[in-house]
Amino acid sequence: MEFVNLELEVSQDLRSAVSKAGWRTVPLLGVGYLLAYMDRVNVSFASTQMNVDLGFSATIYGFGAGLFYLAYSLIEIPSNILLMRFGARRWLARIMIMWGLIAAATMFVRSPMQFYALRFMLGLAEAGFFPGVVYFLSSWFPTRQRGRAVALFYLANPLAVAVMGSISVPLLGLDGTLGLRGWQWLFVIEGLPAALVGVLVLLFLPDKPANAPWLTEGERSALQAAIDDHPERDAGHSAHGVLSVLKDRRVQLLTLIYLVTLSTSTTFLLSAPAILMELTAWKLPPVSTLILYAGLLGALTMFLTGWVTDRRGERFTALMLALTIDTAAYLVIALAPSPAVVAGTFVVAQIGRGMQSTAQAALWTDVLKHRGLAIGAATISSVANLGVFLLPFAFGAAKDHTGSYHLGLFAFPALHVFALLFAVLLWRNAVGRRRMMAS
Asked: Disulfide check for 184: which of 107, 200, 263, 353 has CB 3.0–4.6 Å away?
């Protein structure tokens, strides 16, 4: 992957520094995020056995699955304030080690209260990881290279869906080995690697270019100068308070967009195997294969979106197109005209999700000044994760009340209409600001 835009007039030192930074930081963080996303949503596959074994209803499962996001939202802003105090390397490593151990411990769940407690603890442990990494990447990549760096990191999100689709059925197939159920093997095998990656981050990930022994002095200077040359370097964001960040109209709109897209996509994925099995009448193995290929296509789309939006220097077209695609796709899935159409539309929805995820994360770094990015990104993510707590619970309750997922599925396209409206308002705000700065 070429991390430097070859059309820019940049020095050889800067070109070399950005390339080195890309290969030395993004892959390790991407693996960490892949494991993080697996450990928060692998319960979707585990639930196909676990809910039967433990007698969990859809309401119990939805509430427990969503508790992760309540804890995450409560601690995310404090976590990122502490990240700035202790440094990204140590704080991100702490997050990964703790969540890996807690995720593996989910194998010991025997009651709803234990399930609730461990999901809540997992959210506390992982809180701040994603916005912390976005902040970290802003410390390493200039604005015009940041979109593809974020996209490469964010590739781990759909890749996690693909990995789960490929390994979850074999792990569930270990049922009975050493006296453990398949869902217990799934939790422990997918949880412990995160702790190992946390140790690697602690050992090998520098906090900033000045601490990187693999950069020359010229590369460090050139890279830091390019990072400091933010297009809104004179803007008035402050990292000293959440309220000052929330006063920005753009942050408010970014928060609302992320609230809708994160809550709907996560709620769907937390029950994706069960939903697709109901709508298509397929067994788990073909459904897991569908999820695998949808995740791979979502990852490819995410990669291309980061490259295209960096090249164009504009993110709004990709965001609004993606939201339109997702709105239509979720509507078709809710109507469930046929198994083949549902399967194909699920793939389309994952493509749209990949596009809008990259565009949103890159917009965060465009809108927020470097010093305000840690708190700003955490604020956006924290508010959005409250929605992810509520929607799975409501979705599960609707399933128990009606006996089907159909009613709950219609909420997804309706919510995406609002996200599209917020994106248009954000675009108009950006156009107005550019005109004011030009006059």
From this structure: 107
Q: What burial letters (b/e) apply to 85-109, b meaning 16+ CB within 10 Å?
A: eebbbebbbbbbbbbbbbbbbbbeb
362 vs 364: CA distance, rounded Å: 5
What are the sequence ranges of the domains in the chain?
A: 12-229+237-438
The pLDDT assigned to 1 comes to 47
Helix, strand, coil fractions of the chain, as percent rounded to 5? 85, 0, 15
Q: In this structure, are residues 121 and 99 in contact, taking their beta carbons and an 8 Å threshold? A: no
Q: Which residue has the higher pLDDT, 85 or 172?
A: 172
Two tokens, residue 239:
């990292």
**From CA 393, how far away is CA 62, in angstroms rounded?**
4
**SS3 annotation, 140-185:** CCCHHHHHHHHHHHHCHHHHHHHHHHHHHHHHHCCCCHHHCCHHHH
Q: What are the angstrom distances between the C-alpha of 300 and each of 293, 419, 439?
A: 11, 23, 40
- For the stretch 241-288, pLDDT in tens is 566 666 778 888 999 999 999 999 999 988 999 999 999 999 989 999
pTM tops 0.85, yes or no:
no
CATH 3.40.50.300: does it fit domain 12-229+237-438?
no
